[in-house]
């Protein structure tokens, strides 16, 4: 991801809400000794508070760093944000705004002489979760108010193209990235001429940010359009990509087909396949039901472990990988023969594995078997866990080499 950003001379803002660990946060920005900025997005205050020591370390060595609290600001969050901002350089802490009343309340709550907090305006580019449309009649007054009250503390426009997860091809992902840039470029027209700063247009979600990798070598006509648009925007504004789940990957990401799923590594990037998923859930078989019309087994992981977010490419809540008790056996492939064990149903504490495909190809499970399951959505699947057990695929892939503690709470 950092290589792609370097190639296109754009910034990168690492979202940490998927993994919630210091170790991966540092890796996302190039490590502790990198010279590049260490810019982050968080979805909870506890993530920002756990990043504080690393931020202080960066700033003490002259390394630029910042945190964007990446949800429209709850008023109750202001005291904690001010405390964080008081420890760091001005505008190291930034907020999202998509509503004039919310911005007015935020600005009114700031005490005299309070630390400087930057402001981004969240633009709705079609996901309809949070944000304001640049075509809204409420948009120009919001921009005007932010410029008047924040001055150069107005940092730019932010978009999350979350509906890119519905894409099914490289072109779909490229379309999303280009559309985001166009909408944010249009949004800049509402900024009054009196504004003296340089705006940042920050765009992305893992599928669209991943699509930028394709722009390095793809022959698609979308590549030329992207490069031309980017060059035009960069004459006056900074562009920044942001993404979060890509270090873990999951079945939802694979299902977007934002990059090729097979073949040799292209431009140094591995294929977008299940084998590249970094997170697996270790589960245990607690009962078996071979006598049912479709063979099934009970595992010690339900919705509290795996989440309840579906994946568009298959009818399940997780896929049993080819590790441990399923080593060497058929692994379910939604683009292949669809034969293997999947998590077919879930309740709160338990999941039901179901065998998909011909019964004669089934490898029988036994009580006590340990299995690895790829989850649909890594962000949700990790939420109930206190730590990751780390293995190194460049070594034997089985030995636990480290334990990374996850940040808990809000």
From TrEMBL:
Gene3D superfamilies: Alanine racemase, D-serine dehydratase-like domain
Record field: catalytic activity: D-serine = pyruvate + NH4(+)
Classification via Pfam families: Ala_racemase_N, D-ser_dehydrat
Keywords of this entry: Detoxification, Lyase, Metal-binding, Pyridoxal phosphate, Zinc
Annotated D-serine dehydratase-like domain residues: 278-392
Gene Ontology biological process: D-serine catabolic process; response to toxic substance
A GO MF label: metal ion binding
InterPro entries associated with the record: Ala_racemase_N, D-amino_acid_metab_enzyme, D-ser_dehydrat-like_dom, D-ser_dehydrat-like_sf, PLP-binding_barrel
EC number: 4.3.1.18
Cofactors: pyridoxal 5'-phosphate; Zn(2+)
Family label: Belongs to the DSD1 family.
Function: Catalyzes the conversion of D-serine to pyruvate and ammonia. May play a role in D-serine detoxification.
Protein name according to UniProt: D-serine dehydratase
């Amino acid at each position: 991801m950092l290589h792609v950003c370097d190639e296109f001379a754009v910034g990168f803002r690492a979202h940490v809400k998927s993994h919630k660990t210091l170790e991966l946060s540092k890796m996302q920005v190039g490590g502790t000794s990198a010279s590049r900025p260490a810019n982050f997005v968080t979805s909870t205050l506890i993530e920002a508070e756990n990043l504080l020591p690393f931020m202080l370390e960066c700033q003490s060595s002259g390394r630029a760093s910042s945190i964007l609290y990446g949800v429209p600001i709850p008023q109750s969050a202001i005291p904690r944000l001010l405390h964080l901002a008081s420890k760091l350089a001005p505008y190291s802490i930034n907020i999202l705004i998509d509503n004039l009343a919310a911005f007015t309340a935020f600005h009114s709550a700031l005490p005299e002489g309070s630390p400087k907090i930057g402001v981004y305006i969240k633009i709705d580019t079609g996901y309809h979760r949070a944000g304001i449309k640049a075509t809204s009649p409420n948009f120009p007054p919001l921009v005007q108010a932010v410029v008047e009250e924040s001055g150069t503390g107005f940092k730019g426009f932010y978009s999350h193209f979350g509906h890119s997860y519905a894409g099914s091809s490289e072109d779909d992902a490229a379309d999303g990235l280009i559309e985001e840039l166009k909408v944010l470029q249009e949004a800049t027209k509402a900024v009054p001429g009196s504004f003296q700063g340089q705006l940042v247009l920050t765009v992305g979600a893992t599928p669209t940010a991943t699509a930028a990798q394709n722009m390095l070598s793809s022959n698609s006509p979308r590549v030329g359009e992207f490069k031309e648009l980017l060059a035009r925007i960069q004459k006056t504004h900074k562009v920044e990509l942001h993404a979060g789940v890509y270090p873990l990957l999951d079945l939802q990401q694979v299902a977007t087909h934002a990059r090729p799923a097979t073949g040799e590594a292209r431009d140094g990037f591995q294929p977008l396949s299940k084998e590249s998923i970094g997170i697996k859930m270790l589960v245990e078989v607690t009962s078996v039901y071979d006598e049912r019309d479709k063979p099934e087994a009970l595992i010690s992981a339900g919705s509290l472990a795996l989440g309840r977010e579906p994946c568009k490419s298959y009818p399940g809540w997780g896929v049993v990988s080819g590790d441990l008790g399923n080593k060497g056996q058929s692994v379910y492939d939604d683009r292949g023969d669809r034969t293997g064990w999947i998590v077919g149903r879930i309740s709160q504490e338990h999941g039901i594995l179901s065998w998909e495909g011909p019964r004669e190809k089934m490898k029988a499970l036994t009580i006590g078997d340990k299995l690895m399951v790829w989850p649909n959505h890594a962000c949700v699947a990790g939420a109930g866990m206190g730590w990751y057990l780390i293995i190194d695929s460049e070594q034997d892939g089985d030995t636990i080499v480290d334990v990374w503690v996850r940040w808990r709470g809000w």
